[in-house]
Design brief:
heterodimer; A: mainly alpha; ABC transporter involved in vitamin B12 uptake, BtuC; Arc Repressor Mutant, subunit A; 16 helices; B: mainly alpha; 2 domains; two-stranded antiparallel ribbon; two-stranded antiparallel sheet; 17 helices; 4 strands; 4% strand
């Protein structure tokens, strides 16, 4: 079960997942998630070109090739937007599809040359293709990314939350953006062998989105995203290594997206369930106040604070059955069933002293 | 040269280009280019699920499944973004990879029964469309081409029928809403057609290359033309040209024909970026140059006007002084003098330069403007 291959794969996936979570946090906060998708797709021609030039699948050659292509793609998006005034989404789509087309062309070129059997693993990633010898360079490059990130932490934090403020403070925003994009490109490239170019974006985005739901502040978010990323990476890689013929990328991505979905649902403050719950509570409280106000109003109309209101009247006032609301108010000690029930036999309710105070108190 | 196989490949490519241009024009104008990306990935899940539920691998069922999945991905991401828990970009970046990953996983798990090669879904190969043909009217037609022609006919019909409405909705959704045109429903129809076309096209060119035909020609058109009709026309021409050029080049280099065609759509874009009369680099350069020349001519005139009738006029109005006093390079000084002569604002008097009547008037206007600006500045 715990074969050396599996340990290698799990370690690599944990590293890549954590790194992707960290850098993805910045993409998510800056609203540039799809730039990650573009850079990932666009690194394909770089990977294949590096293979064609170096004649092998050496770690650093592939890394350099993919990095150059990814960086070129990022700059092309900027140039199309700023230089030619192309809309952001169109610029992303253009660069993604053209770079990928170039990658496909180069891929067929490599196939006719032969010896490229392993190149399509970059499309979806294959855990088994990670070699033990790749682990150390991977850790070194990933560590380098984190060191640079730590050195420029304050600047990047400023950039993530308030780019205009950063510019006003005189920070070199354009250059910092290029540096951040470069770090993201390195991260994407490191993850390609595991997740593949098509799905890498989800590995960047999903852990960051998940982390965002639980915490405030950049530092806690980044730590949590790293943890989520590592979990999804390891889990996905191990499942794919154990299962037969299952590509690694999809499993890692589904694990990460599953974490994100759970977080969106269950997070204590922002989560969808918590929000539903709060809304239901607020609605209940509002209903209760409406009934109290109606009873109070009836009392005032009859110049009799102890006036007992007819439940049918309250039903009509609320537009639905007031019974459950009245029962809850009774439990809370705000209303009492009125003592006298005359000819109709209809239930009647009166305000208690606590109910009158509650009615006069400003809303909590 | 153009045998039956080549004709089938080129025809199929042309059909992809036509449908891509028709839908892409409106996607790009509505700012939904990346929805094309999401759709083209999400359809994979739709196709696989349709197969798992009904066993159908071709025909209308997988198309329906793909349309549902494609539209579902876009609307799902929008619904997620409306919760304000995450941005539209992050929602898109999660939803469609998740659907694609699930599709790939299901294909992996069912590899023995479902003959759907995932590399083919992604990359396609238009060079093989002639392998799968159907005989209609005694002629062999590629199946992919026939499907694309059917989808293309629907696309043409819808765009022709809703031309005016889509035009309004693309530029001014608010106005469209006010006119009762229901831009939301139109957006839905556009996405559904895109998904159906993506299904038809993925056999031929693969989902990602379809994206190139969807977006790049339309963006090219946007750079060149100012009207929707113009954008569409340029997109059609540049898409069709890419099919021809890409085929020829890829055939000669012996690389993926579909990849070559998709890459060739970039040629039109580069051409438009450089040479478009509206927003091209050449046009911008010409404009910048003209503006700069105008500024320099104004400096020359101001210089001549300042010294006109003074003691140093003879000394200050020779061409050599421009180099010495204004710090211009000799070639530059020559060009500015030539431009000023062309405009008739100065004339040569032997060795000297003198203002013409027009030049004097221009100088006065310039001085007045300068004074006014100074007054306003204080």
């Amino acid at each position: 079960m715990l074969s050396p291959t599996l340990i290698t794969v799990a370690l690599a996936a944990a590293m890549i997942g954590a790194l992707a979570g960290v850098l993805g946090s910045f993409l998510v906060l800056r609203g540039q998630s799809l730039l990650g998708d573009v850079i990932a797709h666009a690194s394909l021609p770089g990977v294949v070109a590096a293979f064609l030039i170096s004649g092998g699948r050496g770690f650093f050659a592939i890394l350099a090739g993919a990095l150059i292509a990814g960086a070129l793609a990022g700059l092309s998006v900027q140039a199309l937007r700023r230089g030619a005034g192309v809309k952001p989404d169109a610029a992303l789509g253009v660069v993604l599809s053209l770079f990928f087309a170039a990658g496909v062309v180069l891929l067929t070129l490599a196939q006719t040359r032969g010896g490229s059997a392993g190149l399509t693993v970059f499309l979806f990633g294959q855990a088994a293709s990670v070699l033990r010898a790749d682990l150390l360079p991977m850790a070194l490059v990933g560590g380098g990314v984190l060191v640079v990130l730590a050195l420029f932490w304050k600047e990047f934090q400023f950039l993530a939350f308030d780019p205009e403020g950063a510019r006003a403070q005189g920070l070199p925003v354009a250059r910092l953006e290029v540096l951040l994009t470069l770090l993201i490109a390195v991260t994407i490239v490191l993850g390609l062998t595991l997740a593949g170019v098509v799905l890498m974006v989800a590995l960047l985005i999903a852990p960051a989105v998940a982390a965002r739901q639980w915490v405030r502040g950049l530092a806690p978010m980044v730590w949590l995203a790293a943890l989520f990323g590592a979990l999804a990476g390891t889990g996905g890689a191990v499942i794919s290594a154990v299962g037969q013929g299952v590509a690694t990328g999809p499993v890692m991505v589904l694990a990460a997206v599953g974490l994100a979905a759970l977080s969106l649902l269950l997070a204590p403050e922002r989560g969808i369930l918590a929000r539903r719950n709060r809304q239901a509570q607020a609605k209940k409280a509002l209903r209760g106040r409406q009934v109290l106000a109606a009873l109070g109003g009836l009392g005032a109309d009859h110049a009799n604070p102890g006036y007992a209101g007819d439940q049918a009247m309250l039903d009509a006032y609320l537009g639905t059955d007031a019974g459950p609301v009245l029962a809850r108010l009774q439990r809370q000690g705000y209303v009492l069933p009125a003592s006298l029930a005359p000819e109709t036999g209809a239930r009647r309710w009166e305000l208690t002293e606590a109910g009158r105070q509650r009615l006069e108190a400003p809303d909590a | 040269m153009l045998d039956a196989v080549a004709l089938m490949i080129l025809g199929t490519g042309a059909l992809v280009a036509i449908s891509g241009a028709l839908l892409g024009t409106f996607l790009v104008l509505r700012g939904e280019s990346m929805s094309g990306d999401a759709i083209s990935h999400a359809i994979v899940l739709g196709i696989v699920l349709a197969w798992m539920l009904t066993g159908a691998r071709a025909g209308l069922v997988p198309v329906a499944g793909a349309v549902l999945a494609g539209v579902g991905a876009v609307f799902g991401a929008q619904a997620l973004a409306r919760s304000k828990l995450l941005g539209q970009d992050a929602a898109t970046g999660i939803v469609f990879p998740a659907m694609f990953a699930l599709g790939v996983l299901l294909i992996n798990l069912n590899a023995r029964n479902l003959h759907l090669d995932i590399d083919t879904v992604l990359l396609g190969e238009i060079g093989f469309v002639w392998l799968n043909t159907v005989t209609i009217f005694g002629i062999d037609w590629p199946v992919a081409g026939v499907t694309l022609a059917a989808v293309g006919a629907v696309n043409i019909g819808v765009v022709a029928l809703l031309w005016k409405e889509w035009k309004i909705a693309a530029f001014d959704p608010g106005l469209a809403e006010a006119l009762g045109l229901r831009p939301g429903a139109m957006g839905f129809l556009l996405l559904a057609l895109t998904a159906a076309t993506a299904v038809a096209a993925f056999d031929a060119v693969g989902v990602v290359l379809f994206l190139a035909f969807l977006i790049v020609p339309a963006v090219t058109g946007r750079l060149v033309a100012a009207s929707v009709g113009g954008v569409l026309a340029v997109a059609l021409v540049s898409g069709l040209a890419a099919v021809g050029i890409g085929y020829a080049a890829a055939f000669r280099a012996d690389v993926s024909l579909g990849g070559g065609m998709a890459l060739a759509t970039g040629l039109g874009l580069v051409l438009a970026l450089m040479a478009s009369p509206r927003s091209g680099m050449v046009a911008a350069w010409v404009r910048r140059r003209a503006l700069r020349e105008e500024g320099l001519v104004a400096v020359l005139i101001a210089h001549l006007a300042a010294h006109e009738g003074t003691a140093v006029e003879a000394e200050e109005s020779g061409p050599a002084v421009l180099v010495e006093h204004l710090g211009w390079r000799p070639a530059q000084a020559q060009a500015v003098v030539a431009a000023a002569l062309d405009r008739g604002v100065i004339r040569r008097e032997g060795e000297r330069l003198a203002l013409t009547e027009a030049g004097r008037a221009l100088a006065r206007a310039e001085i007045r403007r300068h004074d006014r600006r100074r007054v306003l500045g204080e």
